[in-house]
Amino acid sequence: MDNRQMEEIVDRCGTKMFRVAAAVLHSKEEAEDAVQDAFVKLVEKRPRFESPEHELAWLIRVTVNICKNYLRSPWRKATVPLTDDYPTETENERDSMELLASLPPKYRSVVHLLYYDGYSVKETARILHATESAVRKRHSRACAMLRDTLKGEYA
Predict the structure, then answer these.
(1) Which of 27, 41, 43, 115 is most buried, by CB atoms within 10 Å?
(2) What value, to the nearest 5°, has the Cα angle with vertex 56 and ends 52 and 58?
(3) Please, what is the angle between helix 3-25 and helix 52-72, to 10°?
(4) Opening angle at CA 36, ends 33 and 40, nearest 5
(5) Counting beta carbons within 10 angstroms of the beta carbon of residue 57, is it exposed (0 to 12), middle (13 to 18) or buried (19 or more)?
(6) How far is CA 64 from CA 38, 60, 140, 143, in A?
(7) DSSP character for 114?
(8) Structural domain 3-154, CATH architecture
(9) CA–CA separation, 114 and 75 (whole Å)
(10) In a 3-state reduction of DSSP, which class is residue 49?
(11) CA 35, CA 19: separation in Å to the nearest integer?
């Protein structure tokens, strides 16, 4: 893989990978590290992909797994929520990301992949190495948590 090819992959996939990592980790710096680690794995493993979509799905799956490892790490420092550093374009999107950030990581990743990245339940299950029923259950629980949070704000 030459530099030009790597730059194209980073340009095409980097933002989505960062958004997923930021949603899971709540830390801009750790999200950047996770994305960088995922690209290192791409260079080391040099897998062959059927399509650009397959490549993106692989990179997101690797990024999510790296994020899970970060969350399990005993050396992980307490983090401060991102608030102004969310990778969003509008205030409405930032509010949505803050609401998403209130969810536990396993629910955040499901909601992010389903709604922000537009993956199907089947694709999300494959990316997260989970069953489709587990993804649907996490989605249902995440929606209930978000509903309760919103009821609390508007009650």
Answers:
(1) 27
(2) 115
(3) 50
(4) 135
(5) buried
(6) 9, 6, 20, 21
(7) I
(8) Up-down Bundle (1.20)
(9) 30
(10) coil
(11) 10
In the chain, domain spans: 3-154
Calculate mean pLDDT across residues 103-111. Answer: 88
Note whether 105 and 67 are within 8 A (CB): yes
Return all residues near 66 (Cβ < 8 A) that are at least 6 apart.
Answer: 21, 34, 37, 38, 41
Using a 10 angstrom Cβ sphere, with 0-12 exposed, 13-18 middle and 19 or more buried, the burial of residue 148 is exposed
Q: Rounded to 5 degrees, what are φ and ψ at 104?
A: -60, 155
Predicted confidence (pLDDT) per residue in 1-55, tens digit: 678 989 999 999 999 999 999 888 888 889 999 999 999 999 998 888 899 999 9
Q: What is the band of 66 on the pLDDT scale with cuts at 50, 70, 90?
A: very high
Angle at 40 between CA 111 and CA 27, to 5 degrees: 45
**Does residue 86 carry a pLDDT above 90?**
no
Q: Which helix (H) or strand (E) holds 79?
A: none
**Are the CB atoms for 63 and 17 separated by under 8 Å?**
yes
Q: Give me the phi and psi of 9, to 5 degrees please.
A: -65, -45
In a 13 Å sphere around the CA of 150, the CA atoms on its Cβ side amount to 10
